[in-house]
Structures are given as structure tokens and as C-alpha cells.
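Here is an idea for our session: we take a single protein and study its fold together. Once you have written the record down, we can walk along the chain together.
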Amino acid sequence: MKKALVAGATGLIGELLVLELIRSGQYNEIRIITRRQTKYHDEHLVLEYIIDFDKIDQYDHLFHNIDDVFVCLGTTMKKAKSKKQFMKVDYTYPIAIGKLGLENDVKQYVIVSSIGADRDSRFFYSKVKGKTEEKLISMMLPSIHIFRPSLLVGDRGEFRLGEKAAELVGRPFSLLLIGPLEKYKPVKGTYLAKAMCTVAQEDSSGVHIYESDQILRLGKILNNDYRRSRHDGTV
């Protein structure tokens, strides 16, 4: 049995991921570091810690004996209100978590990035994601899994007008996105969460990057497997 730590458990992917980790039966302890209370604080194997991410170095003890770290942190420019604050959430915090993981011999680091992540991108969002990836890779973590999903769809705890509009407009054209364009298809949050949980059980070393079309295909397979197991009564 393993121990996991999840950062960003109040967002769409974080919430779904915690459910997947619980359902997997691979963990006897799941620690959540968050700014506000989650709905998992009463689960017997989920330990919730409300922290100040600006002082994350003070929480080194929470990384002791952790096997897998999952980072689902992310914000929007509208919510962050400034490039500086955006950088803090999408770059500074993930890097700080990576350093604490490295210092505490965490075996795997799994993070949600974004399609088009590139430090040389003209777009600020993609540039920050690219810089975060580059820095984490340079840290020589034993194993790092980077997921680059396209538009994520699912029931969020907050309403994001831009994402909802893109989802509604893009849905009719989704079937046209085939071949090289498949990576631009919207990705269900459940697919990404299942994929993140699954790759963490492979205990593979080195750097692994999953583009959006790979996430989509893997998520569909895992989702179908789960449905069959439920039908057969094995879960």
C-alpha cells in the first residue's frame, strides 16, 4: 500500500482524482494540502491539511513517507487578476512542491499541465506552463508524469464563462477533430483523473509526457473497463 499527497483537490480534476485514488485501493493514506476545506475531510483514509501555499516550506513534514505527489493546481488570469499571481499558482507552487518531494524521496510526481505548453510560446498561459514543465524536468525527479490536456469538461464548483462557451461551441465540431487534430478535442475530467491514477501505479522512472489525444484514448479505455467491472460486480 502507498501514500499519496494531492495539491489542488478543490478543483475539477483534483476532486475527481481524489475519488479515483480512493477507488483504486492502492493507497492507505491520502493527504490533501488545500487552502479551504474539501468534502473529503471525513473519509477514513483522507487527511486534510489547510495550508498557506506562500509558506509551503513550513509544511515539509507533510511530505514525509509520501510515495506519489499529484499536482492539480491552476488558475485563470481573470481569477488571478495579475500575471504575478498567475505565475505564483501555476509556476512557483508546483516547483516548491517538487523541491519538497525531491528532499523527501517522493517516488513519483504527477502534474496537470496544458496542451501547447511551451516556454517560447507567444501566449502567456502556455509560456508559464512550459517553464513549469522545463524546471520540473531539470530537477531530476525520479519519475515525473506530465499531462497536457486540451479543454477540460465536467462539473466545476465554479462557473468559467470562457471555458463553458468554448465547450458549447466546440462540441458540435468535436467529431471533425480526427488524426493530428484529435488532440484538440475536449477531454472529460474523469478521463484525466483515471489516467493520472493509473500511470502512478506503473512505478516507472524518468520523464513521461501525455498529450491530449493520448489522455483521451487512455481515459476511454479505463472508463470502459470500470463500467464493465461495475456491471460484473467486481467493484
About this structure: The first helix runs from residue 12 to 24. The helical segments are 12-24, 77-80, 83-103, 124-138, 161-170, 189-199, 212-232. Strands lie at 2-7, 27-34, 46-50, 68-71, 108-112, 143-148, 152-153, 187-188, 206-211.
